[in-house]
Amino acid sequence: MKSSTVAQLHKNFESLVQTEEESGIEFWMARDLQPLLGYAKWENFAKVIVKAKTACMTSGYDDSDHFLDVGKMVDVGSGAQREVPDVMLTRYACYLIAQNGDPSKDAIAFAQTYFAVQTRKQEVIEQRLAEVERLQARKKLTVSEKQLSGVIFEKLRDNQSFGRIRSQGDMALFGGKTTQQMKKKLKVPKSRPLADFLPTITIKAKDFANEITTFNIKRDELATEAAITHEHVKNNADVRKLLGKRNRR
Questions:
Q1: 0.90 surpassed by pTM
Q2: Predicted confidence (pLDDT) at residue 79 exceeds the cutoff of 80
Q3: What order of strands is seen across the sheet that includes strand 80-89?
Q4: Residue 126 CB-half CA count within 13 A
């Protein structure tokens, strides 16, 4: 494909992109893409859209999140208009449509690459944001563990008590599994802490339970290892229940 052709096609596709004001999500209108992808009749293009919707659902996504059926007013002559069906398409939807086209056509071949690259960029960005969120949660957990450890030491004057109490709390959060059992399950190296391999939501759960325990130790003036352990176990068990309810929704 000539570089001039690529440049023109890129310009054409970019000129059609629109942005939803409230969410900032980019989208294309199907009837705008139709001629660009070489489809003369809407009926033929509509069949491709149906195939793309099926591919979307097969991939495990809700097609309504990527294909939104709407109406569009078109001129029919003498100043009159009528409404015709149209579809708002996300980048991913456009990618799926392009995948159902004939790659021997320059516009289709370009669209397949164009939307694939853009979709991959979005996936990379989302992955990076998830990694940043996890890193922030991990740092916050470290802070809450230091705070809890400090409060426990003030009350008990025992350097080993925090480890024992944390272990009991973890068992409550992990449904009865010990830290070592969880490390084995997640294949955590012996020299690495379990929290480095936990899902972000679990890291946040541990952090939340720590904060509640720290607050309640101070508020209720808990001063024995048994009382603090009971408190921490209860808080972790409660957080586990919350996670269970969230997953059932």
A1: no
A2: no
A3: 18-19, 26-29, 80-89, 67-77
A4: 6
